[in-house]
Known about the structure:
Layout: E1 4-7, H1 14-29, E2 35-39, H2 45-54, E3 60-61, E4 80-81, H3 86-95, E5 101-105, E6 111-116, H4 117-130, E7 132-137, H5 138-145, E8 148-149, H6 152-155, E9 159-166, E10 182-186, H7 190-199, E11 203-207, H8 213-216, E12 223-227, H9 231-238, E13 256-257, H10 262-271, E14 277-280, E15 286-290, E16 302-306, E17 322-328, E18 342-345, H11 351-361, H12 368-381, H13 392-405, H14 409-417, H15 426-431, E19 434-439, E20 442-451, H16 454-458, H17 461-475, E21 479-486, E22 491-497, H18 500-507, E23 515-519, H19 524-536
Parallel strand pairs: 1-2, 1-16, 2-3, 4-5, 9-10, 10-11, 11-12, 13-14, 16-17, 17-18, 20-21
Antiparallel strand pairs: 5-6, 7-9, 8-12, 14-15, 19-20, 21-22, 22-23
Amino acid sequence: MDPIYVTGHRNPDTDSIVAAMAYAALRNALGDREYEAACLGRVSDETQIVLNRFGFQPPKQIHNMYTQVRDLDFDTPPVLSAAVTVGRAWKELQGQKNISALPVANEDGTLYGMLSRENVASYNMDLVSSAYLEDVPLFNVLSVLEGEILNKAGECTDSISGEITIALPMSHENLLFDREDSIVLCGHQPDMIRRALEMNVRCLVLCQAELSEDLRNLPTKTCIIFTPFDAYRAARLIFQSTPIGRICRTRDLICFHMEDRVDDVKEQVLKHRDPCYPILDEHDKVVGVLTRYHLLRPRRKRVVLVDHNEASQSVPGLAEAEILAIIDHHRLADVQTNHPVYFRNEPVGSTNTIIAAMFQERGLLPSANMAGMMAAAILSDTVMFKSPTCTDRDVWTAERMARLAKVSLEDLGKEIFSASVEKKTAEEILFTDYKEFHIAGHSLAVSQITCMDSPNLLERKDEFLKLMHAAAKKKGLDTMILMLTDVLLEGTQIIYLGDDDTIRQAFHVSPKDNTAFLTKVMSRKKQVIPMLSALWG
C-alpha cells in the first residue's frame, strides 16, 4: 500500500512539523498504518531543538505530489540477459500474454534492448532463405537441443558456425554436404557420419542415434553432439540457440524513469507507436515496462494537509494528488478537491490544539514524548501565549500535554525561544518561515522569525533588503515583509519592501527607511494579513 503523506506548508515551522507527525500517529494508532508524516522544506533550528528534546527524527522530506511513473500499475515481466537463447525468450513471451515485448539488459541491469514477438518472427523468416548459424555459443546449442558432447573436439569447442544441413541418402551427389563450414544433422547413417568427420565439418548432430566405437575414435576436428530429438525438430530448435542480443531492437529506444511525470510520458507516447516502453530506476536499471493501457487510470498520490489550506503554500503538484483531509487554523483559501473531504478548521492559535482534541474525541492519549512535542508546538505558534491568535483552548491543551509529558511549559518555552538566530545567514532567516499570498490583485510575501534579540537583527537590514529585492523581482511580488517578532518586547520589528503608504495605512505607524515597529503585533495570520486585506479591499 502506498503511503498517505501528512504534510504542513512550505518552509515549515514547529507547529506544521509536529502537526503532521501527531496526525499521522493518531491515524496509525487507529489502525490506518499507511499514514506517514512529511515536510516540504528544511527543519528549522527551533523545530530541531523540539525534536531532539523529545527523541524524534525529522519527517521525510517530499518535493512534489505529481503523478509519476512510479504511481502507475506498470508490468514487471522477466528482464532477460542479452545472452539468453531465442528459444528461452520465446517461452517467456508466450507466458506473458499481455506484454508485447520483453526488456533485455546488460550484465549490470541497465537497458540493452527490447525483444518483441515481431523480432522473433522476422528472425525466423530470415532463416528460411539463409539457413546459416553464425558464431553461436556451444552452451546455447546444447541447451535448446538438450544435447550431450560426445568427443574431445567438442569439449574444446566454444562456439559454432555453419550452414544447417540435414544429411540425406547418397543417391544424388548434389544432395550431399560438401563444405567444412557446415552443421550436419543425421540419424543412424554411418556413411554420412564418416563423411562429416573426415571433412571436419564444424558440428555433427546425431539425432536419436548412437556413435559406434570406430567412428568415435576417428581423428577429427568436428564437434559431435547427441540430441534426443529427430532431425526435423532439431533443425528448427538449433536456430533458437541464437542469443537474443543479436535480434532485439537496440536503437531509437524510448524509455522512461520512475520519477518522470505521467503528463510528460503521455506526450511522448502520443508521438511514438511503440507497443511498450521500458521503465528505468534512478540507476538506469530496468524495473518494468509501460503500455498505453497503464496511462488510462494512473494511481494518484494521497495526501493530508495540516496547518494550511492554500495552494501556493502547499506541495507542488497538489492538483494531481488526492486530498483526503485538511486540518487547519488559518483563513480559508483556494485549495480545491474533486470530491468531498474531511475538513476541520477552528479559530485557535495552533493546529496541534485541534489534533489534541481529535485524540481526545477518539479516546486516545498521545505518547508522553508526542504530547511534549505538541505542547512545544502550541507554545511556538502562540509565542508563549502572547499572540492574539491564542485562545483559552490553546492554554488548556498545552497544559494538559505538558502534564502528560511531565515538563514545565515555562522551561520548555525558554528552551525553544533561546535558539539564537544571530549565526544564521540572512537567507535562512528570510526563507525559514516564508509564505506567499495573493490578495485583491496584490502579490505579497511575509516571512516571520521569532526571537529575543530583534535590535541586533535589525542591524543587518541592508543585507535583508538586498535579498528581498532579488526575491521580489524573481517572484513578481508587489510587497515583501520580514517580521522580527520579539518575545521580550511583545511586538514585531518589520523590514519591508514596497509602498510606504501601504505600511502607514495598514498598521497606523510612521515607517522610516523600510522599517517600522508594530507594538503588540505577534501574529502574521491574525494581525498582518487581515490588515493588508482590509486595506486592499
